[in-house]
Design a protein that fits this description.
- This protein has 16 helices and 15 strands.
- With 511 residues, the protein is an alpha+beta fold.
- The strands form six sheets. A three-stranded antiparallel β-sheet has the order 3-13-6.
């Protein structure tokens, strides 16, 4: 659960899924055979009496379960479709794909015409639509997809390009409660009840470092730009541009006050020795470093309560520490790029839409996909209020789990509460965060880079050179940020801003 939330922050900013660990899943088409899918005609008609297999590209952020265990879950879901729901014309074909390789592998598959029925839209829906990869879902919205549409409501804007719906967004704890999470043993250096923002966190870390000079109390500082952006509602649009407050005028995100404040604070904390000394050169994840005790604290955003985070980190660290946390900020609403569509290669888009609808609305399907089978990978706790691992098993030893994918797929609010992860009260907290969040004026807008692809490529090269060193606090922003901004201008960022602004104005007019 916690890994997916770290990941989402990277997806919002860069969107390449970067702050988490995971296992490579190999080629997108290697996890299982797709022979059964090929029998369907392109028009969506199955052969007489044929049961169409809806091929789902299921993202995972951890090791892919054994194929036999995947088959068991698949068979359970298909029995539910057949026996409980009376569905006899299609069934589910689960194809796990590592989320870290997903975009690369699926782009190659779609370019070659490989058959898929439901896939993640690769974090860049406009480009996928421009490439002709995704099916217009409009004919299915009032029928096959009606339940899912009723669930996500106005979030449907996140799957809409030029007035046409191409994707259904994951319904999840999109708005995050940002916390400083720390080993309780080191909290005696400061009254942690006084910590509520970045300034008071700096005060606490100063005291902790003075008392325990050999320890580090943050992992990385690249999260600060998110927190400083919430202070004045700086909302990133398409990685390189942003709006501020209620304005719909785009500007260079890296020239905003929020970005400048974030990288200055990152550098200040690195210089003070609060954070990991390797900075952006450290290839380990936030989780690995804080859970092992290499760092005695971490700044992270989750859609979970303080109580759950305390329990989660206490249960999952590897050195017997008790963790506590304090909230230091809450995020604004952002356009949800975790969307799922039906590729042009689907042999039966109607069946794919029906299956997608079930994933977003059917509790049995949703929980089996994420947690696996009752009695094998999970069981109810004593009072039947939440589930837990069977005795003697954990996340690394159960035969099947996709737990870390729970916030990147389907409808998170359908899932059973899980001891040490998402409780029933957490789902109420998630909904509160969503309902009270500030929505940016361009919520749902996604720019297309087609007309400025040359400039985007050049700007991307500059971004890749400067972004991580600045946001991790590796370099002095007083010296390096002006260089970054100058090279962005030389690479054509102003052309990108102008083109995106034209699209924004048209989008606002169409609304």
């Amino acid at each position: 659960m916690k890994k997916i939330l770290s990941l989402l922050l990277a997806m919002i900013m860069v969107f390449s899924l970067a702050a988490c660990s995971g296992n490579s899943g190999g080629s997108a088409t290697e996890t299982k055979s797709n022979d059964a899918t090929a029998v369907a005609a392109k028009e969506g008609e199955t052969q007489s009496g044929e049961v169409y297999k809806v091929k789902l590209g299921f993202p995972t952020m951890q090791a892919i379960p054994n194929e036999n265990e995947v088959d068991k879950v698949e068979n359970f879901i298909n029995a539910h479709l057949r026996d409980d729901l009376g569905i006899t014309d299609f069934e589910l074909d689960i194809q796990f794909v590592s989320l870290f390789d997903y975009a690369t592998n699926l782009n190659m598959d779609l370019a070659s015409g490989a058959t898929w029925d439901i896939i993640y839209t690769l974090g860049d829906l406009p480009t996928g639509v421009t490439n002709g990869y995704f099916t217009d879902l409009t004919p299915y919205l009032d029928n096959e997809l009606k339940g899912a549409v009723d669930v996500i409501k106005d979030w449907l804007a996140c799957g809409t390009i030029d007035g046409t719906v191409y994707a259904i967004p994951c319904y999840k704890g999109q708005v995050l409660s940002w916390k400083y999470i720390y080993n309780e043993a080191y909290g005696d250096a400061y009254d942690m009840s006084k910590v509520h923002d970045l300034d008071t966190l700096t005060d606490a870390l100063t005291a902790m470092k003075e008392k325990y000079p050999d320890e580090t109390f943050e992992v990385f500082n690249n999260q600060f730009i998110n927190l400083t952006s919430f202070e004045d509602h700086t909302s990133v649009v398409g990685t390189y541009t942003a709006t501020v407050g209620e304005s719909t005028e785009l500007m260079n995100y890296f020239a905003t006050d929020a970005f400048k404040r974030g990288v200055e604070l990152a550098y200040k904390h690195r210089q003070a020795g609060f954070s990991d000394p390797e900075g952006s050169t450290n290839t380990q994840t936030h989780d690995a470093l804080v859970m092992s005790g290499s760092s005695k604290g971490v700044v992270m955003g989750h859609a979970y309560s303080i109580e759950t985070i305390d329990q989660m980190f206490t249960m999952n660290n590897t050195y017997g520490a008790t963790f506590k946390s304090v909230e230091i900020g809450r995020s604004d609403m952002t356009t949800n790029t975790l969307t799922y569509g039906i590729p042009y290669t689907s042999g039966n888009p109607s069946a794919a839409a029906k299956m997608m609808n079930l994933i977003w609305t059917d509790e049995v399907v949703a929980n089996a996909l994420i947690y696996g089978l009752e009695g094998e990978s999970w069981e109810w706790n004593a009072d039947h209020t939440s589930i837990q691992y069977p005795a003697g098993l954990d996340i690394n030893t159960v035969p099947y789990t996709a737990l870390y994918t729970c916030g990147a797929f389907g409808n998170q609010f359908l899932l059973y509460g899980f001891d040490g992860n998402t409780s029933e009260s957490d789902k109420v907290f998630m909904k509160e965060l969503i309902d009270t969040a500030w929505y940016p004026p361009l919520f749902g807008f996604m720019p297309s880079s087609e007309k400025v692809s040359t400039q985007v490529a050049a700007v991307s090269n500059v971004y890749n050179q400067y972004f991580k060193p600045l946001t991790y606090g590796d370099v002095n922003p007083d010296e390096v940020l002006p260089q970054f901004l100058a090279e962005l201008e030389a690479a054509g960022i102003n052309d990108i801003i102008a083109e995106y602004q034209t699209q924004v104005d048209a989008w606002l007019t169409s609304k």
